[in-house]
Description:
By secondary structure, this protein is α+β, with helices and mostly antiparallel strands. It is built from 14 helices and 43 strands. The longest helix is centred in the N-terminal third of the chain and has 25 residues, at 2-26.
Amino acid sequence: MRKLFLFLAVLFVTFQQVTLAAIREVASTPDSVYLFSFAASGDDGRSGLRFAWSMDQENWFEVGRNYGYLRCDYSRWGSQKKMLDPCLKQSSEGEWICTWKLNDRDGYGQATSKDLIYWTSQKYPRTTSDFEGMRVKAVVAGEEQKGSINRVAWELVEGLSKHYDWNQYRNSLYGERPVQDGERFAGLQPVQATVTVQPERAKEISELLLGAFFEDINYSADGGLYAELIQNRDFEYDPSDREGDKNWNSTHSWALKGEKAGFTIDTADPIHPNNPHYAVLDVEQPGAALVNAGFDGIALNIGEKYDFSMFARAPQGKSSKLKIRLVDGEGKVCGETSLSVSSRQWKTYKAVITAKVTADTHLEIIPQSAGELNLDMVSLFPQDTFKGRKNGLRKDLAQTIADIHPRFIRFPGGCVAHGDGLKNIYQWKNTVGPLEARKAQRNLWGYHQSMGLGYFEYFQFCEDIGAEPLPVLAAGVPCQNSACHGNLGGGQQGGIPMSEMGAYIQDILDLIEWANGDAKKTKWGKVRAEAGHPKPFNLKYIGIGNEDLITDIFKERFTMIFNAIKEKYPEMIVVGTVGPFNEGTDYVEGWKLADKLGVPMVDEHYYQSPGWFLHNQDFYDKYDRSKKTKVYLGEYATHIPGRKANIETALTEALYLASLERNGDVVHMTSYAPLLAKERHTQWNPDLIYFNNREVKPTTGYYVQKLYGQNAGNEYLPSKIVLDNKDDKVRKRFASSIVRDSASGDVIVKLVNLLPVEVNTNVDLSGIGAVQPSAKRTVLTGKPTDTPLPVEDRIQIAEKFDCNLPAYSFTVIRIQKAN
Ligand code: AHR
């Protein structure tokens, strides 16, 4: 890698020398040159707006290799974000206007810039006269391209070129990985470090620093955290949930086994209009069974009890007995019960099944007499859910999340919150109330949301684990990567029409009333009470928007929502959004809007390489402390090629979290993303916790989150770090963070060593007060590709003590104050 970089650098310098020599032949430095702007036709402009300069319009020199200075943000990732035939013009005020075609249908993309480097938010007009202009052909780097030519000052080209160089340099830093450590740190000796706490400089930090972000991605909800064992229990799977899957419809996961019976789907007179489909089982002669496959099967545990329930009716009024069986792959009955359906009207039927064995099974519903039966909401739940809640959560998974001790939970997304197009925006009201009346919806990750895990269950879970709820609602615009859905208003670039914004804002205000309103005196407080929670949930935080593009459409809608919440609920902490990256137009524009409106907190997102985290540990040190707006780092994770989670990614996160604790005065909340992933059903990697029907498999990164969550403090104790090795590369790979938890009085020392050698650390705690002579130490260590578990022991503590940090390790020492 390093060799490749050197080669590229030499190539680049040679190229520059050649081009500079070309300039010198003509004059020392030209005042102006021709600038050719184009988007590569080979990739439909997905690599963005590119530039080349020339003195004679014959010989063109590319500015940056294949480097796009502006990329189209319209529609889905991948094939849809095109920049066709861009046209660059300069206004009489000197501003550059770039206009391009989006596709053959949706009109144009447009952005403006002063320097061709920083571009304003994109607009997508249907028509524009700015697109008109002559396109010429030019050969750039051996390829013919079509574009437009402007005469520009040489300084402009120099600026573009410097920007490219800087980016190349940054990318080389961000590409640093431990695999190169052998070469990078050849001959490195163990490092000596002293960490001297400076209690006189102590500062308060957020008590909510470490939380969790739950999104229904990777089958996190249905088939995951939501303990329901029947897949497609409501027969509402819809072909539109999953493009290109012929089997994805109301019968998904269901099948008829046996003969002389029919299984069809009907919608006449359903239980509820929100749940229109149900099964019709027409039995000519008993023997056949309606079978549900579950989510990769139905895992039973011996001796455990399972609540079976269903809505059913016998339209011909003929009473029918049904056997309900859980059957394994060999046909062995592992648990069973029976029911009689007699009513002509929809009625709930319930029974309990006790598992006779531990087995992977499927469900069979076997009518014992001929006739027609209608079935819906066929459900099977383990009784042993998290905290024993009905309609509850899978105990082991919920406990694994609870063990992080997250101080808040953000839900329900992510992209799921703002949805794929306006019609897919997550509507909280569809997710509360009786299960049969909830409105299922397509999950934009390519499957189905039953909404059985809805807002009530999310709030209940937060309460059960002592976490603040942080619901996130769309800011009146759908996901920035929404498909165009055939019309301009359907994608991200459309927003909820102004005529509907009043109702949308009312829904958001209703949510606050639902969560906090009086159970008797308020309409929505009553709804909450009827659902079984008379006490308010005490909602304090509400997220508006999820990494949206900060367009004019967004700004207008966000401002309306923000002002409405502020007026009715001034105490509510609104969390705004600043785009999907840690820099660029949305980040800059999002922050400008937050500063202008005085938004209390904004949600930053960035998924980055280990090198990025390593070289940006000072990201928040540089924050303007006088700003009113605090930070919620709502989504982050270390991504390496192959998207694996191992100790390399985990230690990078541990290192960065040390900097977040240090900046816990401005960074109030953080959450790794995504949280859960069902094996064989992932749309995104890495995730914090993998699972299947029987096992929970936390990643190494999970243990880092848990160690930070369980060892959080509300007071940061700065320290002076001195290493005997003064090399900057070494210093950046060592971090320490010392916090005090005032509730227990404990002082927690966290030490991260991302070096391939040991760091012998002397910790000087003078001034923090008397402490217990021994302390719990937890160490996570291994080779960069390993996925180790943390190991605990006890060590002796004194005012000054030595602690040897193994190569590539994270060490947490929890020191209790003396009695
Ligand atoms: O965490 C996965 C996705 O990443 C989220 O849905 C979205 O907000 C982000 O792009």
